[in-house]
């Protein structure tokens, strides 16, 4: 909508000055896309957007916050947590579906280039931090932690993941045949969408 208004204004200015149509000299760069969202973990049945499926590893009341920014074909995706177990690693990834009553509802990992039907979900060609959004982190003595993924692709509201899942493993596997695996899904935060 803003692009249409700007184009109409440019055309009106050009026509009003008597110079005729304006030839575009470069392509219009899309506006930056960003999202910030936070939620507090609760057990299914009481949760709205933050779910815990393992209250020992992801206690009720744990806070999760997401900050995503995308501009000029690249993106930065950040995760902050407070209230997890202290001094522990947690694997975390963006997923394709909203959170729900169990961890499986969040679907598979979000992938910029999806795994073809004849390939394995653990094929490192697709299950890697340049095609998925890996947010592994380590908490401090107070149970706070953060991570950031710098991605070589743009994320828009139409192409972005719908949730972030925290896993039981302390780190995402990169071993052959196990790439991207991270154990049980212990917590999930649904991300809002406008489209």
Would you mind describing this structure in some detail?
This protein is mainly beta. The protein has a single domain, classed as Immunoglobulin-like. It has 1 helix and 10 strands. It has one helix spanning 2-16; strands at residues 33-40, 50-52, 63-71, 74-82, 89-90, 92-95, 137-138, 145-151, 163-167, 185-190. A 4-stranded antiparallel sheet has the order 1-3-4-8, with no helix packed on it. Strand 3 (63-71) and strand 4 (74-82) form a beta hairpin. The longest helix has 15 residues, at 2-16. It starts with a helix and ends in a 5-residue tail after the last strand.
Descriptors for this entry?
Immunoglobulin-like; 195 residues; four-stranded antiparallel beta sheet; mainly beta
Q: Going by CATH, what is the homologous superfamily?
A: Superoxide dismutase, copper/zinc binding domain
Quickly give the structural class. mainly beta
Write the element-wise H/E pattern from the N-terminal end onward. Answer: HEEEEEEEEEE
CATH architecture: Sandwich
- Overall geometry comes to globular
Termini separation: 15 Å
Q: What is the CATH topology classification name?
A: Immunoglobulin-like
State the share of residues found in helices, binned by percent: under 10%
Helical segment tally?
1
Number of strands: 10
* Uncertain segments: 1-31
Number of domains: 1
Radius of gyration based on Cα positions: 20 Å
Strand order in the largest sheet: 1-3-4-8
What is the level 1 CATH name?
Answer: Mainly Beta
Characterize the main sheet: 4 strands, antiparallel
Indicate the proportion of strand residues.
25-35%
């Amino acid at each position: 909508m803003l692009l249409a208004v700007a184009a109409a204004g440019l055309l009106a200015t050009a026509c009003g000055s008597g110079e005729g149509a304006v030839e575009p000299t470069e392509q219009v760069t899309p506006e930056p896309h960003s999202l910030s969202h936070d939620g507090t973990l609760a057990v299914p049945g009481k949760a709205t957007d933050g779910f815990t499926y393992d209250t020992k590893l992801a206690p009720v009341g744990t806070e999760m916050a997401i900050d995503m920014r995308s501009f000029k074909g690249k993106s930065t995706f950040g995760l902050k947590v407070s209230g997890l177990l202290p001094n522990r690693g947690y694997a975390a990834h963006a997923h394709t579906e909203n959170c729900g009553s169990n961890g499986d509802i969040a679907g598979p990992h979000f992938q910029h280039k999806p795994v073809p039907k004849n390939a394995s979900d653990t094929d490192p060609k697709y299950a890697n931090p340049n095609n998925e959004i890996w947010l592994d982190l380590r908490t401090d003595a107070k149970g706070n932690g953060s991570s950031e993924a710098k991605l070589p692709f743009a994320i828009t509201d139409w192409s972005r993941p719908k949730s972030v899942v925290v896993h039981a493993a302390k780190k995402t596997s990169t071993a052959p045949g196990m790439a991207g695996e991270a154990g049980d899904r212990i917590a999930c935060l649904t991300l809002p969408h406008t489209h």
